[in-house]
Design goal:
The protein is of the alpha+beta class. About 55% of the residues lie in helices and about 10% in strands. Strand 1 and strand 2 form a beta hairpin. The structure holds fe (ii) ion.
């Protein structure tokens, strides 16, 4: 409770006099509790009107209006107050004469009026506070929902977890007023997968990058399951200004495998708030789940490719002349797809189709496959069954749905003179048209039971000659742009070893 009169000269000195203030304080001892507007007579003809200020349903202050009558300025108490403040009572009386126009009745009317005004003002203040608080909560919720939506939308980035982590850090940086956001992961591929030993930084770090990364690495060694807020000297090189540094663990199966950190808050209040912590924890939580899913996906892919490797090795084992054929066709078909402009993921699927295109040869007798010289019509009829046998073998494997057309149609010709269905043109699935070129090129480039390998110039001339008849002309153009150096390396490797490896089939970073 305090009185702040807005007078100058003797009047101000009078209102600020310790004796008067003491009397006002004594008179209003209960105002903070009672919320009263009741008029009190402080001294004869001097009326006090208490005006409580309410915030969050509590009286936080009491303003006091003092209304004077002419009688007050002539009272004994007035003279005593002036004397104690060493003021000339006459001067004070003159200074206050103009406002000393109240009597008890008019003082009560003014008190009522002020009470209404104060109630209205209090209500407006409360409403303003509520609106401010609601706006702030709404803004926090919006940021949170936007971030969660973006994170959720990208949770399928299992093939590229690093992209997801970068996106999450960028979103945090754009949603929160911190100069830098960083993520750091343990140096253990089994735990952190593709982001093992990586630091992702967005914004402006507080120090040179290598020191910054060193500090994050150190912080990671000490982090537990709970977030940490660093202040003052504890922040080390991560500190900037007065801002706190927040470290939030990225957990996988109960173990920290990384951390997300924020620092150098650029806002009026440089202390981290609850909304910011919630967003950071949500981002770290999503990172943990994504890395765990990515690891499972990687294992599943490795198992899947391992199974295909075993299957293709089984085919090649039936005919030593075709050693490595499946792998080379897979490589060339994938290169044609990439050259033709298919998306990276689609090109990978074409490679897989190329790898398994001849899997139906498992169902063709070895004596026919390995027979030197010309085949009889009956034997050729058996060979011609392999696309359908391959289709039957693979059709129930869900992960191979999109590669089945490559298996079934790879011996069709663009002019409709192929087998097994004699379909033509674009009725032949694109993947099968790509494998058709790769298959023919590799067959002509390799020695067979019935003939020696053709030289490169002749093979390419044959492929060109087949454009528009045996092959799709546009795909032949794409094929002729391929650099065959890697293919030649594969040929020499297959020549020196019968082992069929698919290590080069799909680059490791994309298989991961
Ligand atoms: Fe074939």
């Amino acid at each position: 409770m305090q009185a702040e009169p807005s007078f100058a000269g003797p009047a101000e000195k009078f209102f600020r006099s310790p004796a008067l203030r003491k009397m006002v304080a004594a008179s209003g001892a209960n105002w903070l509790k009672s919320r009263t507007h009741e008029v009190t007579e402080l001294l004869p003809g001097c009326y006090l009107v208490p005006l409580p200020e309410i915030a969050r349903r509590r009286v936080v202050a009491v303003d006091v209006a003092m209304l004077l009558s002419d009688a007050a300025l002539n009272s004994r108490e007035f003279i005593e107050i002036c004397r104690s403040a060493r003021l000339d009572a006459f001067s004070v009386r003159q200074a206050l004469a103009d406002i000393a126009s109240y009597d008890e009745q008019s003082a009560r009317r003014v008190a009522e009026l002020l009470a209404w005004n104060y109630d209205d003002l209090s209500r407006i203040v409360v409403q303003d506070e509520t609106i401010d608080s609601f706006s702030s909560q709404l803004s926090e919720s919006y940021e949170e929902i936007t971030l969660l939506y973006k994170l959720g939308e990208s949770m399928t980035e299992l093939i590229h977890p690093e992209r997801f982590i970068q996106m999450a850090c960028r979103e945090l940086h754009s949603s929160l007023p911190f100069a830098w956001v960083a993520a750091r992961f343990v140096d253990d591929r089994a735990s952190a997968g593709a982001v093992a030993d990586k630091t992702i930084t967005v914004g402006t770090p507080p120090c040179e990058q290598s020191r910054f990364e060193g500090a994050l690495r150190m912080a990671l060694t000490g982090i537990a399951a709970e977030r940490v807020i660093l202040e003052g000297a504890d922040r080390g090189v991560l500190g900037a200004g007065e801002s706190q540094v927040i470290l939030c663990p990225v957990m996988r199966e109960g173990t920290p495998i990384g951390l997300v950190a924020l620092g150098n808050k650029r806002a009026e209040d440089n202390q981290v708030n609850n909304g910011e912590l919630k967003l950071l924890q949500a981002a770290a939580g999503h990172m943990g789940v994504l890395l765990s899913n990515a690891s499972l996906y990687e294992q599943q892919q490795a198992m899947f490719l391992g199974t295909l490797e075993a299957l293709t090795a089984a085919i090649d084992a039936k005919d030593p002349y075709t050693c490595g054929h499946s792998e080379r066709v897979a490589y060339l078909a994938g290169e044609i797809a990439a050259e033709f402009g298919l998306h990276e993921h689609e090109a990978d699927r074409v490679r897989i189709a190329g790898l398994v295109h001849d899997i139906g040869k498992i169902g063709v007798p070895e004596a026919v496959l390995r027979k030197p010289g010309r085949l009889t019509d009956e034997e050729f009829g058996l060979i011609k069954l392999h696309p359908q046998i391959g289709f039957q073998i693979l059709k129930d494997i869900p992960l191979l749905d999109d590669v089945l057309p490559g298996v079934l149609y790879h011996h069709e010709r663009f002019d409709g003179r192929g087998y097994p269905f004699s379909v033509s043109g674009e009725n032949i699935p694109l993947v099968a048209r790509m494998i058709g070129i790769a298959d023919a090129f590799d067959a002509m480039s390799s020695s067979r039971t019935y003939r020696a390998a053709m030289d490169r110039t002749k093979v390419l001339a044959e492929i060109r000659r087949g454009a528009g008849s045996q092959f799709d002309e546009r795909l032949v153009e794409a094929f002729l742009r391929i650099d065959l150096a890697e293919y030649d390396r594969m040929v020499s490797r297959h020549g020196s070893s019968e082992a069929t490896r698919i290590g080069t089939l799909i680059p490791k970073e994309r298989a991961a």
